[in-house]
């Protein structure tokens, strides 16, 4: 039986086992009261952030998540989902008929990670080590667009855009100066612009690299001037000094 000692602190009580190892998830790696360190204990295990990312635009089935992350085994995905569920970041939901399938979705607290991930993304792409030619999932692409839009350039622009990335479809709209993106159904509004590519890289080349759409393999339908104005809203931050 492990001996325990308790150290009182406000608010609540911190429990530690003999030797200083934390009894709960906080302190299990670092033994540090820092909130950022605790965040890494909650979401810092390998694959945790990509799994969270894939649920950021809506609930996903187990198989859908795994299909988007081919390097992730079913065993590891199961373990990470269980851990994130215990932490209150993810919950399991049974969809109503006719679907009647179990999906995983982020809790309100889990969804609050998006601005954190956006800041991490802006910070990380400034590194000269970042390789934009690596694969990017459709959800990751959409989240990157929400991250890399330059709000000061929006002005009075108002439009609806449909994005097709392989078989995935997303609808984007501006609301109160914010770019809102969600999976597109079959009965949505008629978009002002349509973008289509078999994978994410053509989008990266056009929206961030500013290459021509036809040269990059991105199909664009709609008013050309409106499309150019929309594309010009997106920009990557400058690389950090070496």
Could you characterize what this model shows?
By secondary structure, this protein is of the alpha+beta class. It has 3 domains: 1-34, no CATH class; 44-112, Winged helix-like DNA-binding domain superfamily/Winged helix DNA-binding domain (Arc Repressor Mutant, subunit A, Orthogonal Bundle), CATH 1.10.10; 130-231, SCP2 sterol-binding domain (Nonspecific Lipid-transfer Protein, Chain A, 2-Layer Sandwich). 34% of the residues lie in helices and 20% in strands. It contains 10 helices and 9 strands. The chain has helices at 35-43, 48-54, 62-68, 74-86, 108-111, 114-124, 138-148, 201-208, 213-216, 224-231, and strands at residues 4-8, 13-17, 90-94, 102-106, 160-165, 168-175, 178-183, 193-197, 219-221. Strands 7-6-5-8-9 form a 5-stranded mixed sheet, covered by helices on one side. Strand 5 and strand 6 (168-175) form a beta hairpin. The chain is globular. The N and C termini lie far apart (53 Å).
Please give the structural blueprint:
Blueprint: E1 4-8, E2 13-17, H1 35-43, H2 48-54, H3 62-68, H4 74-86, E3 90-94, E4 102-106, H5 108-111, H6 114-124, H7 138-148, E5 160-165, E6 168-175, E7 178-183, E8 193-197, H8 201-208, H9 213-216, E9 219-221, H10 224-231
Helix pairs in contact: 6-7
């Amino acid at each position: 039986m492990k001996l325990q000692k308790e150290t009182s602190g406000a608010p609540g009580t911190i429990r530690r086992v003999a030797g200083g190892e934390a009894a709960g998830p906080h302190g299990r790696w670092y033994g540090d009261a820092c909130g950022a360190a605790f965040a890494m204990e909650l979401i810092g295990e390998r694959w945790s952030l990509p799994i969270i990312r894939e649920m950021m635009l809506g609930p996903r089935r187990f198989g859908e998540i795994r299909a988007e992350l081919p390097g992730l085994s079913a065993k590891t995905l199961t373990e990470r989902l269980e851990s994130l569920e215990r932490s209150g970041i993810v919950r399991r939901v049974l969809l109503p008929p006719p679907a009647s399938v179990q999906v995983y979705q982020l809790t309100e607290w889990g969804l609050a990670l998006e601005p954190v991930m956006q800041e991490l993304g802006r910070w990380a792409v400034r590194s000269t080590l970042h390789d934009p030619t690596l694969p990017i999932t459709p959800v990751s692409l959409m989240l990157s667009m929400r991250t890399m839009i330059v709000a000061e350039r929006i002005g009075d622009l108002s439009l609806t855009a449909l994005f097709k990335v392989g078989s995935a479809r997303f609808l984007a709209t501006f609301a109160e100066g914010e770019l809102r993106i969600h999976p597109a159904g079959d009965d949505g509004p008629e978009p002002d612009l349509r973008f289509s590519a078999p994978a994410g890289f053509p989008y990266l080349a056009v929206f961030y690299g500013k290459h021509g759409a036809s040269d990059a393999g991105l199909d664009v339908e709609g008013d050309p001037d409106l499309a150019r104005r929309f594309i010009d809203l997106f920009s990557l931050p400058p690389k950090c000094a070496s």
